[in-house]
Amino acid sequence: MQSKEITVVGLGYIGLPTAVVMAGAGHHVKGYDAKKEVCESLNAGKIHIVENYLQEAFTQVRENGCLEITEEIAESDIYVVCVPTPFQEEENEKTADLSYVESAAKEVAKVLKKGDLVILESTVPPHTTAMMTEILAEESGLKKDEFYTAHCPERVLPGKILYELKHNDRIIGAKDPEAAEITKELYETFVVEGHCYVCDDVTAELCKLAENTFRDINIAYANQLSMLCRKAGIDVFRLIELANKHPRVSILTPGLGVGGHCLAVDPWFIVEKYGEDASLIRTAREINERKPYWVKDQILKDINYDKEKKIGILGMAYKPNIDDMRESPSLALAGALESDGYMVYGCEPNSHSDTIGNIRLLSLEELLNSCDYYVVALAHDEFKSDAVKKRIMDKPYYDCIGFLRG
Ligand code: SAJ
Q1: Any catalytic annotation for residue 208?
Q2: Domain ranges, residue 311
Q3: What's the domain count of the chain?
Q4: Across residues 289-297, what is the average pLDDT?
């Protein structure tokens, strides 16, 4: 495929690295974000997220002139939509908030021409690609068969995004097989190791949700085991280690809960569509959501409900060695302790803030010096030295992740 004019809509954790990788593959990429401050920071040469090797790769494609940052959606042949799809909560039901997809489609429609291709990368409930196609047609005045649309859900792991963008297999779904083929050709220009598989749009939408739900259910199982083992008075980490010696068993690791914008969100998109038929998926989500509150109860028993005790949480992000705190179970735990009147502090070496909501953040040294009880939530590199582990074990603690074992 020759080099293309591509506009990437949304320059967050997925859109920015995708724009950089596409530009690195020789396409002329125009990155657009609705947040002015994001465009300003990028135009000043500085990326606004923490991701390994991304700053260097960004600087390189900017210097080569392959990536422009624009404050309006620029006209192109191909549009790649990478906007957030959080959930919204109404009457205890969680449903996908598709407002960003809708407004991105309306913006793209303003510049859409015959023969253009619009690819949706955001994780979405089934039938959203069809909805996006409707909006594009309505707003642009083009007929649905005068432009192409496809869904190619992102599948990359934060921390390894640049590597995984080039090495992971991709699933490309479109109602029109020609649209899927054109999208496949485009992705094959930068997916150097993985394969691109084509299918219809709804299969691609559900495939992405099924992947993250698989992981969420497996972790829910591990979290449920951790609660049972506490009752049984045995070490869940040893139990899982031994169970995993079986050639067909691979239980994941229990933790304080499941966070992030993917596993903690995507299963709800299936529950939203299929209700009771998705009861296992709902139950797993509920177990993982409840876990920080269960841990809170264990901590309170340990400190004998003493409100004079200072509780320090090691790790506030949603997983190790990143700064992303979306849906972080550490925030749920801290918030619950704080609203019950307990003194709680966090330590997050990847954040430069002094507070998160009402929770004060301390340096590792300050937290280890001032708290009476520690909660080990994440295995950040900064916590891994023997000296730090020893200082944690000198006081009472709750180790959610088996960090201090052996
Ligand atoms: N976690 C555990 N135990 C484990 C593994 C993870 O408690 O054994 C927790 C983590 O601490 C974290 C949460 O699960 O709170 C999610 O972390 P993760 O590393 O499993 O996944 P994400 O959310 O960073 O990225 C996932 C990936 N999906 C799968 O592995 C199936 C990634 O490939 C997707 O691209 C990403 O979701 C996404 O954007 O959808």
Answers
A1: yes
A2: 210-399
A3: 2
A4: 98
